[in-house]
TrEMBL record:
It is a multi-pass membrane protein. Its main location: membrane. This is histidine kinase. The chain crosses the membrane at residues 12-34, 168-191. The keyword DNA repair does not apply. Residues 261-487 form the Histidine kinase domain. It holds the Pfam family HATPase_c. Residues 192-246 form the HAMP domain.
Amino acid sequence: MSLRLRLTLWYSGILALTMLLFGIVLYFLLNYFLYDQVRQELQRNAEDTYSRVQKSIALSQKGLVIDLELVSRDIYSTNTFLQLYNVQLKSYNRSANLQNYDVTLPITKATLDKLQQTDGFFDKTKVVGQDILIYNQGIYDTSSAPKLIGILQAAVPIGSYERTSDMLGYTLIVWAILTIFVAASLGWFLARKALKPIDQVIEAASQIESGDDLEKRILYEGPQDEIGRLTDTINSMLSRIQVTYTELDDAYRAQRRFVSDASHELRTPLTTIRGNVDLLEKMWKMTSGNAQLATSDQIQMSLEAMHDIAGEAQRMSRLVNDLLALARADAGVVMEKTPVDMLPVVEEVVRRAQFLAHTAEWHVGSLDALENAVVTGNRDYLQQLLFIFIENAFKYTKEGTVSIEAERQEGLIGIRIADTGIGMDKEDVPHIFDRFYRADLSRGQTSGTGLGLSIAKWIIDEHGGAVEVKTRKDEGSTFVIWLPANFPLQV
């Protein structure tokens, strides 16, 4: 059963119960007030007639008894049927309207018994097929012990009142049915309109499930009620899902590119190593393993082949180490950190950097800003971070200078590494920390794996730092590494 149908049934059921209670109360209240006026008028007429009943002493077979008679004005009453019954003589004295119909109002043993206990009561009965209301009032002989000697009955037809009551009951029933039907129809319409956003939620979810449209959103222009808040929440969730899906898709494409580039980078040294191994094997067969039979050219070729093998093996080792570092970063490996005094670390890197292969001039600026600066981090990774930027600067600066200097801001130290090399286009800057990304100008001109800056960015992030990049094509690049630091010895 759908939620819309359940809401409609609940609403209709509550309305039906309300209408039933309202109808019952209204019916009985109207009946009460309708008959109450008739009862009061009938009782008043009976009491007036009772006050005019003539009593006389008569002789009968039972001896002296009290005879009862209606006066002339009561006999010819036209508004009310009157009947006077003498209990002792068992005789009737009726008004003219009753005589014309030749009708006697019923008096039963139950009537006599009840009048023994009360002075008067109402009774509803049918006479000649008509509904009439009778007020029975007892007439008592109070000369000794109270004794019922007569019954005065005043009656009026109530057929019109009964028809009105029946019509009222039917009208209330029909009105209740129509009201419930209209209310149920309106409730079904309102429930459908109110729950329409839920259908849109289902439709949007179905489209997302099938992968057709991740940009689908639920359109809702109603008030910010429960449905409105639910719609906003689901729209926010859909936006988050879209962003997450896009990130996963980008990550998947990056992973495929990563595997492709890694395979390409590994294939090149492997090809070189295999070719040189084949060359050495041929030369070994030609000399039959006797080095004295080898010519100077063959010896030179062997030396070059072994040099190539060693170089490519080192290149593969660096590539594998870089891949291992990035794999650890992806796996969420927590870097072990301790307080590190930055000045000795940078001085050690500066000393060792002069021994790196380079053609540009190496210039060391002021490092005074690192005095007493302590960074909570990993000493080895911090050294690796600086070497990555320095090696890149040497690699892309064939002529000119590469410099390093330090600066300080509040709670931060900055290590500036600048070069006058080939620089980069501004379009390349957002991608330089992507894995295997290398600017088009340098691709094929310089060796490298394209993983260094990715590792550097991971080390910076692990230390809670940031990197600032300034570059211009053919003019050089400047990288400023900012790291949070403490200065415990500073006065």
